[in-house]
Specification:
Elements: H1 15-69, E1 77-78, H2 98-101, E2 115-118, E3 128-133, E4 145-148, E5 176-182, E6 192-194, E7 202-203, E8 222-229, E9 243-250, E10 265-271, E11 283-298, E12 313-316, E13 326-328, H3 336-348, H4 350-356, E14 357-368, E15 381-384, E16 396-399, E17 408-416
Parallel strand pairs: 1-6
Antiparallel strand pairs: 2-3, 3-9, 4-8, 5-6, 5-7, 5-8, 9-10, 10-11, 11-12, 11-14, 12-13, 14-17, 15-16
Helix pairs in contact: 3-4
Length: about 425
């Protein structure tokens, strides 16, 4: 056979060389594809973790805001010889255990409690928080307020005492409002709800025309005007002289993301509607929530703020029978059983509650990211609570299922000292 006379530089690849080259190229493509797929999965996982973190920050700020506002705009008493009736929440609104849910309502004629709640009341043994204040409503009016000093009159208008104009918080025409009398020199005449013939609210008049019944009659009196709700169409009288927001974990009938682990639900905020006492539209704050536990910090000195009077004792949220579990803080020598009785009474007494409650701690266990088949959560349990601060008896040990350990978990912790409670004002 005649040998090729082509130069070596012009010779092609042999079949074997081509097969080997293609095999190497295919192997490199497979490795690159697997690496790319891994990167995409990791990016998706971490993106979901960041999404969970952002959702947590936004949702929990709503809870923090309302915790800080508890007690704002609440009245402490009624005018002498006056009575008041308001129905508050519709007790049939909760799907189960309506008997105990009814205990979140305050009795007619009694000032409202700034905080009400129950242990193991909603799904997954979680707590329920009910916060009462004028500012926890959803309408624009609930964020507005003003005040009426004695003899704040206008010669040009011919009106008597009238509200002060506050540009940033000014009430709008026809906002439904309440008026509370302040008298710093007379505790018997302080923080009293002003009503007219049993009606505790009226429609705000931006020109300052306020009925005489709602005006101060003494130089020592200062009347506060708080917005409750916007007028709406048709105009609905407020159901109660404050707003109320409930926080709880519930499994939604529809809408829980498919990536959520088993035994999780949604943390909701539910505002009691003034028209019918139901929640109306629930506001989802955080998905994939496994548990929410609340710890309350109490001062033993009613309304007295001292250097050594930080939080003396902690308690869990009351159970449905109002029993509480209490452990003294480190260095405090006191009988737990006697304190438990005191706290039980404080939780049911509006005055004692605002004088003794100093701190609210909320612990929320949340799934972080999606399921990871190659991951196992390092612990089979998680202690929810602050055991290092003398609260060992108040912690809840959450046990993960085998499936839940395929997820990552994060424990959010909110600590609030509500400034509208007497115990935090002195």
């Amino acid at each position: 056979m005649k040998k090729s006379t082509l130069p070596s530089s012009q010779k092609g690849f042999t079949l074997v060389e081509l097969i080997v080259s293609m095999a190497v190229f295919i192997i490199i493509l497979v490795i690159a594809a697997q690496t790319f797929d891994t990167i995409i999965k990791q990016a998706s996982k971490f993106a979901k973790i960041e999404e969970s973190n952002v959702e947590g920050v936004v949702g929990l700020e709503v809870l923090r805001h309302d915790l800080e506002q508890m007690g704002f705009g609440l009245f402490w008493g009624l005018l002498p010889s006056h009575t008041l009736t308001y129905p508050e929440a519709d007790t049939s609104n909760w799907p189960t255990d309506t008997t105990n849910y009814a205990k979140t309502n305050d009795l007619n004629g009694v000032p409202p409690r700034a905080l009400v709640g129950f242990n193991a009341f909603s799904n997954f043994n979680s707590d329920l928080l009910s916060i009462k204040a004028t500012t926890v409503g959803q309408s624009n009016a609930s964020q507005r307020w003003t005040y009426i000093p004695y003899n704040n009159y206008s010669t040009s208008s011919g009106l008597g005492s009238r509200p002060v104009t506050l540009p940033a918080y000014n009430l709008q025409a026809s906002d439904r409002v309440i008026t509370i009398r302040n008298n710093f020199n007379n505790s018997d005449d302080d923080r009293l709800l002003i009503d007219r013939s049993g009606a505790f609210s009226f429609s705000y008049n931006t020109t300052g025309g306020i009925l005489d019944e709602y005006l101060p009659t003494d130089p020592l009196q200062l009347h506060m005007v708080y917005g409750i709700k916007s007028p709406g169409t048709p105009v609905v009288e407020p159901r109660m002289p404050f707003n109320r927001a409930d926080f709880f974990v519930r499994v939604p009938t529809v809408g829980l993301p498919k990536y959520c682990s088993e035994n999780t639900g949604t943390l909701y905020k539910g505002n009691i509607e003034h028209n019918d006492g139901t929640y109306g539209v629930l506001i989802p704050l955080l998905d994939c929530v496994a548990d929410m536990q609340v710890v309350l910090g109490w001062s033993l000195n009613a309304g007295v703020e001292k250097a050594q009077d930080s939080v003396h004792v902690f308690s869990s949220m009351p159970a449905t029978d109002y029993s509480v579990s209490v452990v003294p803080a480190a260095g405090v020598s006191i009988s737990a059983s006697s304190v438990a009785t005191d706290i039980k009474n404080w939780l049911q007494d509006p005055k004692a509650l605002r004088e003794h409650l100093k701190m609210v701690k909320v612990y929320i266990l949340v799934q972080e990211g999606k399921r990871d088949a190659g991951y196992t959560y390092p612990s089979a349990t998680m202690v929810i609570g602050d055991a290092s601060n003398g609260e060992t008896a108040l912690t809840n040990t959450y046990t993960f299922t085998a499936e839940q350990r395929r997820f990552r978990w994060k424990l959010y912790n909110i600590i609030v000292r509500p400034k509208n409670l007497v115990s935090n004002q002195r």
